Amino acid sequence: MRRDVTVRFLRNLQHEVIIGGHRLIADEPTALGGDDAGPGPQMLLVGALGA
Predict the structure, then answer these.
(1) What digits encode the pLDDT tens for the residues 25-45?
(2) Is 13's pLDDT higher than 80?
(3) Across all residues in the chain, what is the average pLDDT?
(4) Residue 34 burial by CB count (10 A; 0-12/13-18/19+): exposed, middle or buried?
(5) Apex CA 29: angle with CA 27 and CA 38, to 5°?
(6) Measured distance CA(29)–CA(2) in Å, rounded
(7) Quick one: which of 23, 24, 21, 26 has its CA closest to 3?
(8) Cα distances (Å, whole numbers) of residue 41 to 2, 7, 15, 24, 34
(9) Contacts of residue 6, Cβ cutoff 8 Å, sequence gap at least 6
(10) What is the pTM of this model?
């Protein structure tokens, strides 16, 4: 099964990740300069690995 993955910059440290028909927002906490609009990339990776 093929799934296209698209990542695009939105603003500040925020990125939109589109996987198939699913849309995620990756961002950093305000303490790290982000807007805290979603989990950081590291947390998304940890979640994907199920750790």
Answers:
(1) 999 999 999 999 999 999 999
(2) yes
(3) 93
(4) middle
(5) 40
(6) 32
(7) 21
(8) 22, 12, 9, 11, 12
(9) 16, 17, 18
(10) 0.81
